[in-house]
């Protein structure tokens, strides 16, 4: 056995070097430079190196000795290494690249995902210092346009309960053994100890730890010579739900790769419980290979293609087989496929030709895919829904798998909440929401011309506005299919801007048939929108996603489509200082606000649009804005009002902004029972009632109406105040302050022998369940199963998944003994 292990170790080193050479051959000069220097930056911490962190940072990679190129680099910087830094007891065991690196799926834009395998007894303080050092290296690599992501992996990570923290790149508790499977099938050693799992015979995988103990006891292997992350005979079925959520999240920015990964999870679940994992298949291929040359049987991405294709053909899903192949083809290239093919090394060109020869593709199809860098909105609108449908179908199939097997998820409730919010913000299609349709499908959707055409009521086509990527010239626009349609203009303009169609040099035209809009107003609106909102904003933090969404940047556009002052031609408008209220202007008491358009970005990074032009447009707009703010929300970072009136533009803008700011300030005011604000609009008076759980507006027919309504609401909702932290109905004020429309929220109030649960529905109605006992984690899993299963039962095959899952919170006492609400954290 000792000879066999020595033989496999030598073979593994040979194959690893061949794969490393392939990985470097697919990088540009900057990528190769970063890959070469990277181990040096973790092996030592020296002020002459480009990355240095003051302090006792853990340094030293086991068994690492710089090669000639690396040594020349150190010498040029006058850096000398300690002689004892190559021993087996250094704190950093190994550096491994994982994912597509070194495979046929690697392209010029591929990032480097580096696992820093380290001593499991490393202290938390040392691990934090090492993580800070890795963060600095990531920033340094960015200066070369190379993306490097580091993941600190303790050697015993996969032998313990998974309590990892989720970040933009780290899956947290969403994946555990599935993550180890991906590592083992794709691991490429950059420096340090070799992996023990890869060289132990496949037949012993079911008793991996026991077999390792036997080899150590017999003196066949020395643990100090290897990095050993452990074995696993199969993937626990509980992981599939969290993994599906994680792969969908990654699909927000990398849809082609996400389709491959989601389909792989579906193929795995179809084999349960007799799984043949890709890591096991590739380990077997490696150990049984008679040749010392790499072929596609050792390529991780090609093996994904083979396994998923076999699964889809078995169930007769030929449409997704075709999509799978296109996603695989586009994953191999970063954009201009034709140009990349010519620059690729011989091994890659040969492998690609071998793969696509099996598909019998027509040259026109290859030419279309090769031209992806030049795809415009029409091609993206065709590709985007197909990618989404494929991912959602895979997600629904995994939900069905979990339901059929009565499986609960292993992902913790906090991570479910964060991931579902990210997916809700990215994928959920809602009226007024601007959907991003180009997640790295094409690099440039800009259009030289855009035209907005209005169709009034009573015509053959639906009333509203239509967007075309052409001029208004009949020779261009007649017979052309519109890109988008909406009932109001601001949604179309926002959609074209945030999706990159409208840029600085885009010419915009308008054909108006039933509004006060004109070309000058349209151009002013486009300019204001561009100046106010960047296309991309800072990613929503996990903390923001664990709380109800709040308005962050609010812009209000007045009289964009309908301007009452535009119809004053030839009329004499009499007014004085007593009748200059823009909401009840002049002797005729006219409201000078004809239409209101809202565009805002919230704390989940969604962009929403709303339009109000009915008789109670001001009331409706105020109610909507207030409804987006729970009692304990923070004030928006910015509030900006724009006005496009022909007359009194400044007066209207300032008056409306003052009203909105006053209402927002009142809504967010603490320690109030009820405040009423009276506004007059034309001949009508309205009462705005501010209460902890929400805001309501009621038309007041006479002076007694105000007091009757206040008394009526007091009798209905607050007849008695018990104490400062609880309402008469027994609902803690912290719950009412934190409730948010449109969400289902569970609040746990804990006491010594149990807990109370307050459930707030989408309409802010509260149900209370008191004196409960048992495991809250199991209760939450049951709630998740109910929601996902009920969604699955109520949706047909082609329907979209709903990620508006419930949110869970704990009610706790702060340091000053006040009740506050925090995101629920599992007790595991």
Automatic annotation (TrEMBL):
InterPro entries: Adenylate_cyclase_1, Adenylate_cyclase_1_CS, Adenylate_cyclase_1_N. GO terms for cellular component: cytoplasm. It is found in: Cytoplasm. GO terms for molecular function: adenylate cyclase activity; ATP binding. Pfam families: Adenyl_cycl_N, Adenylate_cycl. Signal peptide: none annotated. The keyword Lyase applies. Its main location: cytoplasm. Residues 5-197 form the Adenylate cyclase class-I N-terminal domain. It catalyses: ATP = 3',5'-cyclic AMP + diphosphate. GO terms for biological process: cAMP biosynthetic process. Its EC number is 4.6.1.1. It is an enzyme of class 4 (lyase). Belongs to the adenylyl cyclase class-1 family. This is Adenylate cyclase. It comes from Moritella yayanosii.
